Structure formats: C-alpha cells, structure tokens
Amino acid sequence: MSVIKAENISFVYGTGTSFEKTALSDVSFEIEKGEFIGIIGHTGSGKSTLVQLLNGLLKPTDGRIYLNGKDIWEQPKKIRNVRFKVGMVFQYPEYQLFDETVYKDISYGPKNMGLSEDEIDEKVRSAAEFVGLKKELLDKSPFELSGGEKRRAAIAGVIAMDPEVLILDEPTAGLDPLGRDALLSQIQDYHDVRKNTVILVSHSMEDIARVADRILVMSHGEKYMFDTPENVFSKGRELEKLGLQVPQVTKIMLLLKESGIKVNQNILTVEQAFTEIVNHLGNREG
Ligand code: ADP
C-alpha cells in the first residue's frame, strides 16, 4: 500500500472572490513507503500548495488525499495527527524559531505529542545529530546561531517528531554551495538511516537529480511527469520549455547527442558522463 495517495486533487485560492486562483487541477499520484521524492516546477506551478495539502494544512477543493490508505479529511478534528505524521519544513524555517534555547525549540514538537522527558531528550539529541548541529549549541538562544545553523535547528525540530513522511520545501534556498551540499547529504543520510519517506521540493534540478528516486514535475498546477530522474531528464528540451534547467552535465550530453554524437543523454553526474564519453571514444577507435 502506498504511504501517500493523491486522488484527483484540485485547489482554488479565494473561491468566489475576485482573487480566485486555481493553484492545482486534477492531480493524482501515489508515493510508496520509503521513497525519496523530488518535486520540481517553475515558480507558481503549485509545489507549495501541493505539499501543504499533503500534510493537511490546506484542504483540497476537490479530490482526496490518503495517508496509509485513510482519507486524511475523514475526521477533520483529527487532522492534527496527520500533521505529526507528515512533518513539514517550510521555506526559510529559521523564521519560526522563537524559544529561549535551541533545545526548547527542537523539543516543541515532541512535547506537543505528549512524550516523556526522556523520550523528548532522546529525540532532540538524535535530530540535532542528523542535521549536524553541535551539542554545545543546544543551550544557546536560536538568535545566537548563524543562518545555516538556524536552518538546521528548524529542520531538527521537525525531524524530532519522527514523522513518517518528511516534507522539505526548498530547504537549501539561500545557503552557499558548501552549506547546500552538506545539508542535502544530511537529508540523504537521514533518509538512508531512518528509511522514512522524504519529499523534497526544489527548483534546483541538480539537487533533485542527486537524491531522488522519482521526480514529480509540476507545471501550471498540473502533474506534468512523475518518473525516475533518468526518464525525466531524457526529456531535456521539453523541461526547458517549462522553464526548468536540466543539470548542466545532462545538458552537455544532450547537446553532444543533438550534434550527432551517439552518446546516452540520460546522464546525471560528471562521473557517468566521463564513463559514457570514454566508452564512446573507445567504441569509435575500436
Ligand atoms: P510554487 O510553490 O510552485 O511557486 P504555489 O503553490 O506557491 O507555487 O502557487 C501556485 C499558484 O497559486 C500561483 O499562481 C500562486 O500565485 C497562487 N497562490 C499561492 N498562494 C496563494 C495565496 N495565499 N492566495 C492566492 N493565490 C495564491
């Protein structure tokens, strides 16, 4: 059984007002337990709306969302439980830090779940470790942390709730390339160790290509594709028409292919490109 199933979901902002805006139309997909899903799409394609529907922050105008086979809106009063199970890290989550200490901030979620002090402590420390936050920072005020550390603390606050599904909306936005790579690797490690489902929203194809098992491509509020990175990036020219940049190395292979050189264009990393080109040269000489 899939962990999340979206069935013909649509969402309209400001229904009946002059600001009425359809953000999602008739989107359906299923996500298997333990998958690492990337969601990409141009600005305004509906990514943020979609993930807020998945954790019950917004209610679909039409359609249904199932978590482990259960319609999440079947009992609207229990929607809070869905938010614990589907943890959401918003864009620029550091702005939501508010407590006296980093420790208290990270423990806010587990406390609300009614766990014991010992359980909370274990969850806070393990979450801080996953995001690479040093122990000595836990007793500081969140306002004493650097930008990157604040981001990590905010993500730890969601991981500490041990959600079955972790959704991160543009978690690397605004970080420098080193910080970006480190955070992505930590999210990947979290996924490898905990084996939870992770959904990562990003407009960076490079990020998504590195980590995702499957990619959901959104365009103008609709599902454009939902497939493996290889299959998605083999549609390089179509993606460019949607305003999405394929990873640079994929683009180079695409250009080589278009100029008549018979290489495989479904390449996601520099290492794969190297092997492919060496093989091609070898075949040609042989
Ligand atoms: P993305 O995350 O891909 O940038 P969004 O889900 O934020 O896309 O937006 C989808 C569409 O819904 C856009 O046209 C956007 O302008 C509109 N939208 C988003 N949030 C609101 C809102 N609070 N009120 C009205 N329209 C909104």
Number of helices: 11
- Our Rg estimate from Cα atoms comes to 21 Å
Largest sheet: 6 strands, mixed
- Strand-and-helix sequence, N→C? EEEHEEHEHHHEHEHEEHHHH
Mean pLDDT: 92
Q: Helical content, roughly?
A: 40-55%
How far apart are the termini?
Answer: 49 Å
Q: Low-confidence spans: pLDDT under 50, at least 5 residues?
A: none
Oligomer: single chain
Number of strands: 10
How is the largest sheet built, in terms of strand order? 6-7-8-3-9-10
Q: Name the overall outline.
A: globular
Strand composition percent: 15-25%
| Ligand roster | adenosine-5'-diphosphate
Backbone structural class: alpha/beta
Explain what this protein looks like in three dimensions.
- The chain has 286 residues and is an alpha/beta fold.
- It has a domain of 40 residues.
- Helices cover 41% and strands 21% of the residues.
- It contains eleven helices and ten strands.
- The chain has a six-stranded mixed sheet, with helices on both faces.
- A hairpin with a 2-residue loop joins strand 4 and strand 5.
- Helix 3 packs across helix 4 and helix 3 runs parallel beside helix 5.
- The protein is globular, with a radius of gyration of 21 Å.
